[in-house]
Each structure stands twice: as C-alpha cells, then as structure tokens.
Please model this.
Amino acid sequence: MPAQTLLAIDAHGLKVWLPTGRTLEPGVRFDSFDDAGANRFREWLHTQARSKRYAVLADLAEERFALERLPRTRPGDARAMIQRKLGQHFPDTPFTTNLPLGKQASGGTFNRVLLCALTRPALLTPWVNALTEAGAVVTRLTSTPLLLDQWNRRRLRHKGQFVLLTVTPSGMRLSLFCAGRLRLSRMVPARGDSLAQSLPHYQSELLQTRSYLAAQHLIGNDAPLQIKVLAASSDQAALLAIIDSGEGLEAEFLDLHSHLRHRPPASAKPGSDAMPLLLQQLVRDPPSAHYAPPELCRGHSLTRLRTGMIGTASLASLVCLLAASSNLLELRALEQDVATAKQAQRALAQEADTLIRDRPATPAPAARMDAWLSGLDRRAAEGIAPIDILRQISTLLETVPSLRLDTLAWRRADPQRDMVLLPPALTGKATHFVIVDIGASLPPASTHNPEEVFRHSAALIDRLQQDLGQRVQVRHRPSPPASAALPRAGHQSAVTGSRHHLELTFALATFDTVTFTPATFDPVTRSD
Model:
C-alpha cells in the first residue's frame, strides 16, 4: 500500500506531514488568513502525483457531540434515523458522522449512538474544495477526538470513566471517556507560544470542566474526576501541579513518548505535543467513522474498486489454472469418485420414489392446490397491513399530545366516493391509499364560548392538513352527557362533556407507495 500524505488542519491553516518509514517529516504549511493560502494549496496539489493518497486530520475547537438512544431496527432504517438526528442537532454543517456505542448498560431495545459534527465548516471548506477540484484520492477526514477514541480502544484499553488530557499546538484538549468510549471533548485554546504561558488558563478551565460535568450528571457531585495526562516527562511536574491544586481532581501520568512508534521530526522540539501520536494513529489504525463528504471520497472508492477488480481477476486466473492442472492429476481416483456419487444419487432417487408412493393422496389435484395457494398469496399481498396503518396513526397521535383517541377504523379508498380526500396528483392511484376515520376529543378550552371552541379545533385541523399534505374532513360531535362519564380503572374521574369531540377523516398512503414521516409540532394552543 503506498504511503499516505497527511494533512493537519487547525484554526490557522493546513500543514503537510510526510511519513517516511518510522519518521514523520514536516512539509509545507498554508495559512488560512486569506484566500492566498488556499490558492497556494491548489497549486501545490497540481505538482503532486495523481496516485498520491491523502488523509486529513482536523484539530479544531468547533466540534460538538450529542448522545442519542435509538431503537434497534433494520440497518437501512437505522441509517435513516441517524441522518435525521444529525440534521436536527447540526443543521448548518455537512461535516457530520456518528460513533456506534452499542446497547445501553441497562439492556432493553435501544442502542446508543454518539452524533459528532465539525460545526464551523468555513475552516474546512477551502481545503476540501481544493482536494475535490484536484481529483485527489482522500482516504479519511477525521478529527482528534475520534482518533483518541480509537487509540484508547486499541492501545490504552482503559474501560472506566476518566478525562484524557492532551496538548497540541492548538491548545489543551479534554476528552471524557465513559466505559472506555468517547462521550464528549472540548479544546481550550493556547494563550502563548509555550506551555508554561498557558498553564494558569488551563488550570481554571479544568475546574470549569469538572463543574460542567457534574451539572450534566456525567459525574457525581462528590466523586473525584480522574484525569489521565498524556504528556512528555519534562512537563509532568507542571501539568500535575495544576491538577493537584484543584479540588475534586485526581491525576495519573502517561508518558507520551513511550506510546510513539513513529519518531517525531528532528526539527521538532521535545515536548508534550501529541500531534505525532495522532498522525501515527491516522496512519496505522484510523477509525471507521470520518467526516469526509461522499464527493471527496469518490476517488478513494474508485481506487479500492479498481484494486478489488484486479485482485478478483488475478484470483480467477489462479483458480482457472488450478482447475486445468487438476484435470491432469489422478484420473482413476476422479472416476471412482464419480461412480460413488452416481451410486449415492440412485439410492436417493429410490428413497424419494418410496416416500412419494407412500404419501397419502391429496383431496384435490396438485395443480389446483397450487392455484389456490397462489390466489391466497395474491390476496394477502393486496390486503392492507394493519401494523403499517397503526404505526402511521401512532406517529401522528404522538405529535399531538392534546388529542385523545376514542374510536379508530380504516378501509381501502374508493376512487369514486373518496376522490375529495385524495391528493389531486394521485387520484388515479386510489388503491394505494386507505381512508382513516378517527373519533377523538380535545381538552377543554379556557372559555365556554362556542366560537373559541371551534377556533381551537380549526387551528388543530389546519396544522394536521399542513403536516399530512392532504385534505382532512372534520365533523363536530356533541359531547355526551356528564352522567354518562364513568371513571375507568387507571384513569382519573372527569366529566366527559368537558372535552370537545371531533370526527376526522383523511387518506393515508400505504407504505409501498409513500413513506409517512410527519413533522413534529407543538400542541395547538389558543391565543386570545
């Protein structure tokens, strides 16, 4: 596999690193203060060989995380749910990904997923556009927290709860790990050219981080926060001093250079810069989750496909060669094997004839029974699947907590009778719709004025029609008398007549035509 060129992006620009053997050599740097840096990077890319492969590391403070619990479902549905959640949490950036964390500790039917995003795309877009325009083969676009998560799983293997402290030229990074997996990460920007100048600022940020984690119930209020310091031995005393001086902080030192396999460049000053370790992890064992958009990875995918096709062709040629050679081997042994196989085939045929002869006669010819079975399968395929309709209606009712379901019925749409309920563009596909009749009730309005009641229900119907994109017919029902309302087990005693009763009729598309994904909206409220 050819060596990859590493591109490290921070808030100040992009730097090129060249791994040669067991050494990392620094290359040219491009500043991002204006468009000149991106233009020089484009010119530099055109001077490189087209066969080069690039791996990109983003060391930015603008990276956010959100933990979600998603129900277990099919892989396609799970990917769709994750994409919707990413759009809800991070709507303003295309650089998103997710880390599967497995099922929750208490079991159940939910999986935990850590949603990740680089929330300031302006720092990445000039460099990504230049790589895309040049047709560069990009294998990964990852970030420091994702690399640290992979490094802890494969190298450090600490399973408890702790904060990993690392230092790069961009600043100090604090990454929280729960049960050995990344939970969140934040960067404290550097305040000077040396570590000593930033230490007072880092000390106050450590205390603020502990208070934040306690407020979010990620750690106990009285529990000490375990901090693992990954740094050089020369900075051990200074870093441990700022941790020991803080209340509720416990420190453990990890020697950075003992974990390095690639030697840092000769021009680098010995210190606690974790960038060589991150680049080493990017070369040796990058995480599967990364931020690269599909158009940037298309070149890498084509390269892998081309390599796979060549490997498949080579394997096929080898198999053909072995098959041709095997025909020249012991012909007598092959003939004996063929005779044994034929004898076994005859024995199986005789056994099958015996079973067929002893089988009792069927009440109808086999061809007629096959026709019956085919008809049953066709009717089952044309029927309405109750679970699909109930799932859609359940999703609709969950979005309107104030609406209480009293009765529910559905039937297949009639092209003539139900034409007014179908969307105009799909009136010719009435068999793909079902008509749903719902008897429901709304909570009592703040006044007994009938106009206010109808305004309240009309606002709800307008919201339903906007969400469904179809027509909804409404009928107002009189409330039953108060004497007819009897308390049921598990429900509070209330007067049924205090609620406003409605009958809603609308069309729903079956799942084989349109996927029902109603938008979430708040319950309807009356404004005076």
Remarks:
- The radius of gyration is 33 Å.
